[in-house]
Amino acid sequence: MAGLSILRPGMFTTVQDLGRWGLQSRGVPVSGAMDWYSHRLANGLLKNDSSLATLEVTLTGPHLRFDAGSAFAVAGAAFDLTLDDVPVEMNAAIEARPGAVLKFGPRRCGARAYIAVSGGVDVPEVLGSRSTHPLTGMGGYEGRSLRAGDTIRVGESIDGPVPRSAIASRPLTLTGSHARLRMIPADQRLAADLTGRRFLVSTRSDRMGYRLEGAAIAAAPGEMVSMAIPTGAIQVPPTGQPILLMNDHATTGGYAIVGTVITADLPLAGQLAPGDWIEFEACSIETARAELRQREAALGAG
Amino acid sequence: MSVTERGSASPQQTWTLGDSCVSVHLAAHIDPVINVRCIALADALERLGVPGVRDVVPTYNAVTVHFDPLVTDSARLIHELERLAASDLPSTVSATRTVEISVVYGGESGPDLGGVAEFAECSEDDVVRLHASRPYRVYMLGFLPGFAYMGSVDQRIAMPRLDAPRLRVAAGSVGIAASQTGIYPCDTPGGWRIIGRTSTKVFDATRTEPFLLRAGDSVTFVPV
User: Fold this and answer.
1) Which among A233, A252, A292 has the least Cβ separation from residue B69?
2) What is the pLDDT of residues B88-116, one digit of tens each?
3) Contact B18 A138 (CB under 8 A)
4) In 3D, which of A250, A22, A31, A128 has the Cα closest to residue B53?
C-alpha cells in the first residue's frame, strides 16, 4: 500500500516496534521504542496491535505526507502539530485525507514522540522485528534513520474506520526537564551512592545509553567477567560516572551494575534528552510490579 | 586450555537485575567446564518453554534470563534454574563444531600487529604464528550480533584493550583483548587490538543462518 512520504526527516526518526527479542544469546540488541508506553498508546488509539511499528521522533520532528490518506496518532514528547497547517492534538486518533501533510513544530517537553498509522508502518521484518538498529544497519527503513524523499509503506488496516473521538485519557508526560526513576538496587552500597543526587544526561547519550554526569560513584569496583545485561541497567565504569543502558545497548557488558530501572519507568527514561537530569530512587520488586500493572491498566483504559 | 572438574553446577550467586531480568552465576571465574554447564543450563531452560521468557543468555560463567514481568517472575525462574542445575547437565568440554576462518594479518588489515609484537617482544610473524597455532573455544556471543568471545590466546600476546577505543573498527577485523580474541561483525567503535581481518562474515541478517558461530564452537584462524 502507498503510505508516507518524508518531506523533512527531523533530527533522528526511526521505525521502531516492541523490539527484537529472542536473539540476545547471539548478540542481537533488543532495540524497540525507547518509550514503550507512548508507542503502545499511539497504536492503541488506532486499534492497532501494540506490536505494529511506529515512527520514533527524536527532539525535532518530521514533515510527512499521507499519500493515500490514513488515520494516525502521535503520543509521547509534547510537540505542536499541524495537519495541512491546522493545529491538531497529540494523543488522539486523527483522519488524514490523501495528500495531507503533518508537520511537527516546536517541542514543549520530552524527547521522543511516536507516530502511529492505521495498519502500522510496514517495513520488512528482520530477525522477527521491524525495529531499526542503526549501528548494524539492521531493520527499519534500510537500517537507518529516515531522510527526505523516503517513501514508507503502511500496512492494511483491518479494523475499519477509527472512531474520531478516540482520545487518550492517560498520556505519559515528563514534568519539566527531569525524571525521578525508580530502580531495584543490585549493589546496596553503590546504590546508596546513587540515590539522593542529581545526574545530568550528557550530550554523549543516544539510543544505546545515557552517559550521566554528577558525583562519581565511590569505589567503583571496575570490570567484572562480561555478562548479559538488561535495558535500564545502571553501569559504573572505572571513571565512576554511571551509564544508563537504553534499548540499543550491547547485549553483554563487563562493568559493575549498581541497579536497574524498573520497566514501568523506562518510558520516562526514554523521554529524557541531553541536558535533562535524573534522580534515582530505590524501590522493591513488589513496587515495580504494582507500578507496571498501573501502566498496563492506564493503557487498557485508553 | 585446562579442563578441571568442579563438581556441582549449583548457582553460586543470584542477581536480580530489575523486574524483568535475573542472572545466576555458576562461578566467579572463567573456566571451560563452567562455561559448558552455563550453555547446557541455558539450553535446558529454553527447552522448558516457560511462558514469559524472552531471552536466555549463557555467558562465560552465568546464565541470564530476560522475561516479561507481567507473565513470570525471578523467583519462579531461579527455582527452575536451580532445579535444572542440580540435574545431570553435560560437563565435558568437547566442541560442537569446528570452524576455520581465513585471516589476512598485519598491514592495513591489522594496524595493531606491530604493537602486539612489541608487547610480546617478538616478531610480527611470531604473533601470527602464536595466534593461529591453537583452536579457540567460543565461550559466548555478545556485544554485537554474531560477535564471539573466544579464548584463550597465548599469554605472550594477551595484550589489554586500547586505552581509548578507536572510533571505527572495520567489519571482519580480528582483535585481541587480554586473553580473548574476537571478530567484529560490522563497522563500529571498538577497543580491541586489531591484528588482522577476515572476509568471512560472522553476521549477515540476509543469510539463512545469520550467525556463523555458536557458543561451544571451536575456531581456528588460518593465515592467508
Assistant:
1) A292
2) 777 777 767 999 999 999 999 999 999 99
3) no
4) A22
Overall domain count for chain A = 2
pLDDT band at A151 (very low <50, low <70, confident <90, very high): very high
Q: What is the pLDDT of residue A149?
A: 97
Whether B10 shows a pLDDT value over 90: the answer reads: no
The answer to whether A80 touches A105, Cβ cutoff 8 Å, is yes
Q: Which three cell numbers stand for residue B18?
A: 530489575
Cβ within 8 Å of residue A130, ≥6 positions away = A15, A16, A17, A53, A121, A123, A124, A139, A140
Which part of chain B is CATH 3.30.1360.40?
A: 13-86
CATH architecture assigned to B13-86:
2-Layer Sandwich (3.30)
- A189 in the same domain as A147: no
Residue A157 is assigned to a structural domain of this protein: no
For residue A292, give the nearest of B21, B70, B205 by CB distance: B70
Chain A from 173 to 192: CB within 8 A of any B CB: 183-184, 186
B211 inside 8 A of chain A by CB: yes
Half-sphere exposure in the Cβ direction for A95 (13 Å, CA): 8
User: Helical H runs in chain A?
Assistant: 36-45, 188-194, 266-270, 285-300
B145 touching chain A per CB within 8 A: yes
- Report how far Cα B100 is from the mean position of its chain's Cα atoms: 16
Together in a domain, A120 and A201: no
Q: What is the model's pTM?
A: 0.93
Task: Give bridge partners of residue A181 from the DSSP assignment.
Answer: A280
pLDDT given for residue B7 in this prediction: 42
Confidence of residue B6 (pLDDT cuts 50, 70, 90): very low
CB-based contact A90:A32 (threshold 8 Å): no
Q: Which chain B residue's Cα is nearest to A230?
A: B21
Kindly report the CATH class assigned to B98-223.
Answer: mainly beta
A50 shares its domain with A143: yes
Distance (Å, rounded) from C-alpha B47 to C-alpha B74?
Answer: 18
- Which cell numbers in the block locate residue A146? 529516515
The DSSP output letter for B160 is P
Residue contact A27–B66, C-beta within 8 A: no
User: Cell numbers of B118, please?
Assistant: 612489541
Specify the pLDDT at position A164: 54
Closest-CA distance, A84 to chain B, in angstroms, reads 40
Q: Is B218 on the interface with A (CB under 8 A)?
A: no
ipTM at complex level? 0.94
Paired with B203 in beta bridges are B211
On the 0-12 / 13-18 / 19+ scale of CB atoms within 10 A, B164 is exposed
Other beta carbons within 10 angstroms of residue A301's beta carbon come to 10
Question: pLDDT exceeding 90 applies to what percent of chain A?
Answer: 78
The verdict on a CB contact (< 8 Å) between B69 and A263 is: yes
What confidence tier does A291 reach under pLDDT thresholds 50, 70, 90?
very high
